[in-house]
Amino acid sequence: MRLNDLPTPSLVVDVAALEHNLQTMAKALPGRRLRPHVKATKCTALAKRQAALGHTGFCCATVREMEGLAAAGLGDDLLLANETLDARRLGALEARVTVAVDSAETIDAAARGGVREVLVDVNVGLPRCGCAPEDAGRLADLARRRGLSVRGVMGYEGHVMGLATRAERKTACDAAMAKLRAAHAQVGGDVISAGGTGTFDVNDVATEIQAGSYSLMDTWYAARELPFRPAVFVWSTVISRGPAWWVCDAGLKSLGMDHGNPAIDGAKVWFCSDEHVTFAADAASASPFAAKVGDRVRVWPAHVDPTLAYHARLHLADGEDVVDVWEIDLRGW
Amino acid sequence: MRLNDLPTPSLVVDVAALEHNLQTMAKALPGRRLRPHVKATKCTALAKRQAALGHTGFCCATVREMEGLAAAGLGDDLLLANETLDARRLGALEARVTVAVDSAETIDAAARGGVREVLVDVNVGLPRCGCAPEDAGRLADLARRRGLSVRGVMGYEGHVMGLATRAERKTACDAAMAKLRAAHAQVGGDVISAGGTGTFDVNDVATEIQAGSYSLMDTWYAARELPFRPAVFVWSTVISRGPAWWVCDAGLKSLGMDHGNPAIDGAKVWFCSDEHVTFAADAASASPFAAKVGDRVRVWPAHVDPTLAYHARLHLADGEDVVDVWEIDLRGW
């Protein structure tokens, strides 16, 4: 099958770019040094590729992702890097399961739910989940009293990922990781789990890096001095042409929009509607966009995670040939 | 089942608010005066309620929505209010099918695809699909020469929907509809299809109004002097509490974000992550938000259409009781 035989919009990954990204990361963070975050891709077929490269521990944001990886035989070491009160579903899994806890309530849920191992989640600067660093030891003691094994700490420096340069990220990451190191001194355990695609090569405190976006990338991360290539796009058809613009059939239901508009080569995107992207040629571009109604166009998402969550399938393309189709099978909750 | 028995996040509709909205619209625009737009809800069960109220013609944004309505026995009069080059799938349907055309290419696709009826889509001010008003007669002639029956014109005044007051929308809608009326004079036919939830009661040119959001609503439309009630929310669990904030388990994958952050009663939403909403109590509120970890919270979406497209099911609630579950079965393309 050729790309032009796909209905549009369809989600497509360039296999050469994907392989480049997977190999680059496996070289930088071999084996268990990387704990791939499946929230970005929600695809067990892609997770199997990562496991084949040596990354056999995985990281999830939802219970559904944990269940799906366990069912796919990828349950060697699954971390729910998020808080949950719905821990009975985790306790029922045939897999090694660890869950993040940051409160008496989430510790209680883990213990009653039959989960055996936890990480104490520490707030390292992003106002989201995680306890205060000085509270981590108390929570670890509480978890141990409830019969839970405390493997160590987790702390996501999400506020660092968006900084434009590697140097800025290094400075901010060091400050965040000083907090995590202090918490770890109180908690103990072998694991310091942290990081993401934006800090994979500047975080030298974490024993394992929780990166996911690196495999497929998006325009937001592409602007941040990283060695990974944009690998995923929405394949779309030009369905209308106005006096000074084109319209293609991607839109708000095929693109995550929280990082702003997607990109089209040689074009300026004006706005997105439910099933439309309106865009004009960029006169400043070396090759300004030009097309006729019926032509296909690559639409590059600004944020990979919420883009993938809209699609049922990922089409693997080698040039213009569709060589495989992967189910995006970890969607929902 | 009770609301608290649902896993979170789950999409929930308040049946009393939904019924209020459906009845209010059916009174204002009875029978075929409303052509419900299913893009907002993507749910054949909801479409069947609308058909039972007399609205037996439907409006779609995707070929998949057309296929799903036809398969559900709702094919009396289906309009794809969008351009497509993929018209063979439409020609194969056992239903009355009409498609919007705005170019020689889309007319050719319709004719070759076995579609029999078209509307000429006219640009009435939104830079998206639609021909120039003065070009509509030429396209109608071209369509007739290709053997297509031209039922009339369509023109979506999408640039009008966001205006805050009914009076502003009336003025802007009149200007847009003057263009559509001029085009219709060149094209002929019985149908002038236009409008949406924001102009349902100010558009007095259209023979049928294409409204969809009215049934479930969102915070964006709720701010626009309309008689419809917010009916749909994401049911979520508070999973973490910080020094000055809470975190619940909705997020970028359960909420359309192009209209900005969702709302939580008595709270100010700070930001959304993939599976988190971080928010603080609103001290200016009559009842500022307060909760403990494990409590549930209603998260009100800012834009209903891309929110629905993330969810597989819509849970119908009468107070705290879940009384039915509808599949959101028209997703994908």
Secondary structure: elements and pairs:
2 copies of one chain form a homodimer.
Chain A: E1 10-14, H1 15-28, H2 44-52, E2 57-60, H3 63-71, E3 77-80, H4 88-91, E4 97-101, H5 104-113, E5 117-121, H6 136-145, E6 149-155, H7 166-187, E7 191-194, E8 208-209, H8 219-222, E9 232-241, E10 246-248, E11 267-273, E12 276-281, E13 296-299, H9 304-308, E14 313-318, E15 321-327
Helix pairs in contact in A: 6-7
Task: Write up this protein.
Two copies of one chain form a homodimer. The first copy, chain A, is of the alpha/beta class and 333 residues long. Chain A folds into two domains: 3-11 and 229-327, D-serine dehydratase-like domain (Lyase, Ornithine Decarboxylase, Chain A, domain 1, Beta Barrel); 16-216, TIM Barrel (Alpha-Beta Barrel), CATH 3.20.20. Chain A has nine helices and 15 strands. In chain A, strands 1, 9, 10, 11, 12, 13, 14 and 15 form an eight-stranded mixed β-sheet that branches. Chain A has a seven-stranded parallel β-sheet with strand order 2-3-4-5-6-7-8, with helices on one face. In chain A, helix 6 (136-145) packs across helix 7. Chain A starts with 9 loop residues before the first strand and ends in a 6-residue tail after the last strand. Chains A and B meet through helix 5, strand 9 and strand 11 of A and helix 5, strand 9 and strand 11 of B.
